[in-house]
Amino acid sequence: MDVFLSFDVERHSFETNTHDNSTGADSVIKRIENDAMPRLLQLLAEYNAKATFFSTAIFAKNSPKTIRSIVLAGHEAACHGYDHDDYYDALSLEKQIYFLQKSKSIIEEAANVPLVSFRAPALRINKDTVRALESTGFQYDSSVSSQRFDGPFTSGAIKKLKWLTAHRKPYHPDYSSPYKKGNSTITEVPVSALGWPFISTHLRIAPTITFAVQKLLMLEADYTHKPLVFLMHPQEVLFFQKGKMAHSHNSRKTNFFSGELRHALKFRNLGDSCFELFRKVLHNCQQHQANFKTIKEVSL
Ligand SMILES: [Zn+2]
Predict the structure, then answer these.
(1) Cβ contact 28:8 at 8 Å
(2) What's the fold here for domain 2-297?
(3) Closest CA to 79 of 297, 268, 295
(4) Which residues, other chains included, contact 153 with Cβ-Cβ below 8 Å and sequence gap of 6+?
(5) Which of 8, 35, 92, 263 has the fewest CB atoms within 10 Å, i.e. is most exposed?
């Protein structure tokens, strides 16, 4: 069974539910650099597990040390957009190319190796993303989550209904739609889901359901050779004080369900409990003869 562990490395703060613009020792970026990342790299080493770290360019610019430590430990450094507010499903082909080029070169400077894999901020892409990735030298994408159903709880929820019909195994997407099989040179590595997504946010909110989903995904892998693709954020292993959600630019447009309730759920099992839940995900994989790979090591 092939397992792709992936981390989205960004400066999102659970306290304010926005970007953390602070620069001090207690900023999210510094806490990831000094606390979350060393612990996670150590844990991955214990399981001899390779992972892929999709970082925003702003994160890489402010913490090149983190990106270097990822590469030095044998993991894959990859791109997660410029600053997480470049939503590719709302951008023209030209704008996507502009953001991809800019982000790629900033992260490559920190990593000191070429980047070939991309995951869109908030997993938001459109039909032009495939061409934009090809023309900026990317070879792999992991922005689709086949058969994941979020209801109204996620950004760009309506467009994400297309996930329901996307292929489960890695595939070459079509130029007309990233959710269809086609002839592009990009390899899509979909994040695992069975209605319920196999990601750390949902692992923290409902561990029992997520571990049940992991069991089913591992059984599926035995029969179809579909790999497991898990998504996590490094700052989830940090402790955050639950404060009042900042009234961000879009708070007026959101309702209670996608705003305050979602914010409250996101505080569940943060910090050490998230770390231990992730250890259990790794343990379950190991018990199932996992072959941990980075995204660029995928084979079709
Ligand atoms: Zn992200």
Answers:
(1) no
(2) TIM Barrel (3.20.20)
(3) 295
(4) 257, 258, 262
(5) 92
Q: What's the CA-to-centroid distance between 85 and ligand 1, angstroms?
A: 9
Specify the residue for token string 């790629």. Answer: 104
Q: What letter represents residue 146's amino acid?
A: S
Distance 122 CA to ligand 1 centre (A): 5
Instruction: Tell me the CA–centroid distance for residue 284 and ligand 1, in Å.
Output: 25
What is the C-alpha separation between 122 and 88, in angstroms, rounded?
A: 9
Residue (of 299, 252, 295, 207) closest to 4 by Cα position: 295
Cα of 201 to ligand 1 centre, how many Å?
11
Residue type, 149: F
Distance in Å, CA 223 to ligand 1 centroid: 31
Query: How many Å apart are CA 19 and CA 55, to the nearest integer?
Result: 14
Q: How far is the CA of 46 from the centre of ligand 1 (A)?
A: 26
Residue type, 38: P
8 A C-beta contact, residue 81 and residue 38: no
Give the pLDDT of residue 251: 47
* Interval between CA 54 and ligand 1 midpoint (Å): 8
* Domain regions of the chain by residue span: 2-297
Taking the CB of residue 77, how many other CB atoms lie within 10 A of it? 26
CA dist 139 and 118 (Å) reads 8
The pair phi, psi for residue 4, each rounded to 5°, is: -110, 110
Across the chain, which has 300 residues, the per-10-residue mean pLDDT values are 98 88 93 98 98 98 98 98 95 98 98 98 95 98 91 76 88 96 97 95 96 97 96 95 57 57 84 97 97 96
Distance in Å, CA 9 to ligand 1 centroid: 7
User: How much distance in Å is there from the Cα of 290 to the middle of ligand 1?
Assistant: 25
CA trace torsion 95, 99, 100, 106 (10° rounding): 160
Ligand 1 center to 19 CA (angstroms): 11
